From TrEMBL:
One of its GO terms (molecular function) is DNA binding. This is Stage 0 sporulation protein A homolog. The lineage of its organism: Bacteria, Bacillati, Bacillota, Clostridia, Eubacteriales. May play the central regulatory role in sporulation. It may be an element of the effector pathway responsible for the activation of sporulation genes in response to nutritional stress. Spo0A may act in concert with spo0H (a sigma factor) to control the expression of some genes that are critical to the sporulation process. Residues 5-121 form the Response regulatory domain. Keywords: DNA-binding, Phosphoprotein, Transcription, Transcription regulation.
């Protein structure tokens, strides 16, 4: 297996050192550096290009979300895997929208972390079921459709509303499928129905219309 060069970004020294120790046990992993904030990540990548960045969300100076946005715009080939906790759900959608390959919990077991990195580098989207479930619940809390409101979402099924909310927040089909534990084909079918009910075939236009309805 090809060597995977990894940069670890976390503001906690103990976390950085612990991850480094675990990852360096793998023959195909090479930890090429560590960083304590987003600015250090960007400075490092100017000199050396890792294959993957393990990116903490909450860091001083520049957090993981902003760093992911800048990093993916400059170096789209670098895989970003977000390190998160249950309390970071609000930031996860933003990071995914900016091109993160997924997220893993900080208390992940060592062998699962190794698998997640290998899978992410192969192009798989990493969405732990425990966090994905909470993420979907959070989305539902943020956009409750009131019965008295006269809007087109009242004609949507419960699943269509769920998918419409995620579409409006920038999730792609693969991310929606992984979060809701359904196939991408099923997601495409639901989105086709959503387009039909909204009278559009454009994803951006649909997302804008859904946001207008939800925020009304």
């Amino acid at each position: 297996m090809d060597e995977i060069k990894i940069l670890i970004a976390d503001d906690q020294t103990l976390m950085r050192d612990g991850l480094k120790t675990i990852l360096e046990l793998e023959d195909n992993f090479k930890v090429v550096g560590t960083a304590k904030d987003g600015e250090e990540v960007l400075d490092f990548c100017k000199k050396d290009s890792p294959n993957l960045v393990l990116m903490d969300i909450r860091m001083p100076k520049m957090d993981g979300v902003k760093c992911t946005k800048i990093l993916k715009s400059l170096y789209p080939e670098i895989v970003v895997l977000i390190l998160t906790t249950f309390n970071d759900v609000d930031y996860i959608v933003e990071a995914l929208n900016y091109g993160a390959a997924g997220y893993i919990l900080k208390d992940i077991e060592g062998d699962e972390l190794v698998k997640a990195i290998n899978d992410a580098c192969k192009g798989s989207l990493m969405l732990p079921s425990s966090v994905a479930k909470k993420l979907v619940e959070k989305l539902s809390e943020k956009a409750i459709i009131k019965p008295k409101e006269k809007n087109i979402l009242l004609d949507f099924s419960e699943r269509e509303i769920e998918i419409a909310k995620m579409l409006s927040m920038g999730f792609n089909n693969r991310q929606i499928a992984s979060s809701l534990f359904i196939s991408e084909g099923t997601v495409k079918n639901y989105i086709s129905n959503i387009y039909s009910k909204l009278g559009t075939s454009d994803r951006t236009a649909a997302a804008i219309e859904i946001r207008k309805i939800i925020e009304a």
